[in-house]
Automatic annotation (TrEMBL):
This is MICOS complex subunit MIC60. Component of the mitochondrial contact site and cristae organizing system (MICOS) complex. Transmembrane segments: none annotated. It is found in: Mitochondrion inner membrane. InterPro entries: MIC60. Belongs to the MICOS complex subunit Mic60 family. The keyword Transmembrane applies. The lineage of its organism: Eukaryota, Metazoa, Chordata, Craniata, Vertebrata.
Length: 172
C-alpha cells in the first residue's frame, strides 16, 4: 500500500490497439492522466493510511494561516491540537456552513468520508483547508485527485465496453 499500482501504459496501449476504429474508446484511453500511465496510482487504502498519518500533523498547524505566523503562533497551534478533544471522525453535514470550515472539523469530516469509502467527498473537504494545514496535506490531495481522475476514465471505458458488448450479443 506504500507504493502506487503498476503503470497503466500497457493497458492503455492495449485498449488503443484493440479499438483503432472506435474514436470514443481512443479518446477515453488518451484521456488517462500521463502520471498514471507512467507511474500508476495509489489505492484508496493507501490514500486512507497516508491521510491518517498526515492528519495529526495538519491538526498541529491548523491555526497557522498563509502568512506563516511567528514561532509563538506555531506553539499555540500545537498546544491547541494537543488540548482539543474532538471526534476523530464526524459525519459531514449535507450543507457546509461557515462554522464547519474549521480545519479540525474539515479533517474530521474527511476522515469519516475516507473510512466510509467516499474518496471524492474527502478530497472536496480537504480542498477547503487553508494555510499551513493545506500545505501539509497538498501532496495527498494531488494523489487523491489523480486516483479519482483515473478511476473516472476507467469506469467510463468499462461502461462503454459493457454497452458495446451488450449491443453485439443481443439476438435480432
Amino acid at each position: 500500500t506504500e507504493s502506487p499500482s503498476m503503470p497503466l501504459e500497457d493497458a492503455a496501449d492495449a485498449v488503443r490497439a484493440s479499438c483503432v476504429d472506435n474514436d470514443f474508446a481512443l479518446a477515453l484511453a488518451s484521456a488517462l492522466p500521463e502520471e498514471s500511465l507512467k507511474r500508476g496510482v495509489y489505492s484508496e487504502a493507501s490514500l486512507r493510511a497516508r491521510f491518517n498519518s498526515l492528519r495529526s500533523l495538519a491538526r498541529r498547524v491548523a491555526l497557522i494561516d498563509e502568512s506563516h505566523n511567528t514561532l509563538y503562533q506555531y506553539f499555540l497551534s500545537y498546544l491547541q491540537a494537543a488540548l482539543l478533544f474532538e471526534n476523530q471522525q464526524e459525519a459531514p453535514p449535507t450543507q457546509l456552513r461557515t462554522e464547519d470550515l474549521d480545519s479540525f472539523k474539515l479533517l474530521s469530516y474527511a476522515s469519516y468520508c475516507l473510512e466510509h469509502g467516499d474518496l471524492e467527498l474527502a478530497a472536496k473537504l480537504v480542498n477547503q483547508l487553508r494555510g499551513e494545514a493545506r500545505r501539509v496535506i497538498e501532496d495527498w490531495l494531488t494523489e487523491a485527485r489523480l486516483t479519482l481522475e483515473t478511476r473516472q476514465v476507467v469506469s467510463l471505458l468499462s461502461a462503454y465496453a459493457n454497452a458495446v458488448g451488450l449491443g453485439t450479443t443481443q439476438a435480432p
